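Exercise 3.2. Students should predict the tertiary structure of the chain below and write it as structure tokens, then compare their answer with the key that follows.

Predict this chain's 3D structure.
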Amino acid sequence: MCKHQMDEPLNSYRKEIDLYPLQRYCLSNGKELSMPRGATFQQSGAPSRHIAYIEKGCFKYTVHNHADGKDYITGFAFEGEFVADYPNCLYGLTSKVQIEANTEAKIYIVNGEDMYKVLMADTTHLLYGLKIIEGLFLQIYSNYIDLYSHDARERYKHLLKRCPQIVQQLNLKDIASYLKLHPNTISKIRHDITFEGQQP
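Answer key:
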């Protein structure tokens, strides 16, 4: 799986935070749940109430653009990571993202408000919760900067460097949506990379 192959994880918050306490909490208190591909974890426009540890599978986050009537992928969550609309899930706030299983998945799901109570129990837990939010912000900010500072080819190559198995786990359309590129552009970049350095 992707998590074993990458030196720098796609979701960079994993580098900044010790996620073992959160993993342990989900495994100890969560309900084990199997989800088929395409199943909805979080419905856009509905209250966000859960967070889950992903033991197996992959999830995608999408937003709907009402102007062009299309859905766009804003992120992924892989095996060994967590899936949630965080921090909205701690407060039951309305989610603006749709989260779906991109493959068959096995998760350990917990109630976000219960986790909020744990995080508010003392200063140590509160600081841990703030660290998670900070890590997620830095990841989103970094992705935003990359979008404007790298061209299409650089963004694709950077994605492959961070997660070389992603081309096997995700279809071309999903990768293109995440990178905000047309699928034909991805196909051309792949072709150019494959034959890079070869004589005609």
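Discussion points: Strands lie at 31-35, 40-42, 50-56, 58-65, 70-78, 82-84, 98-101, 105-111. The chain has a mean pLDDT of 84.
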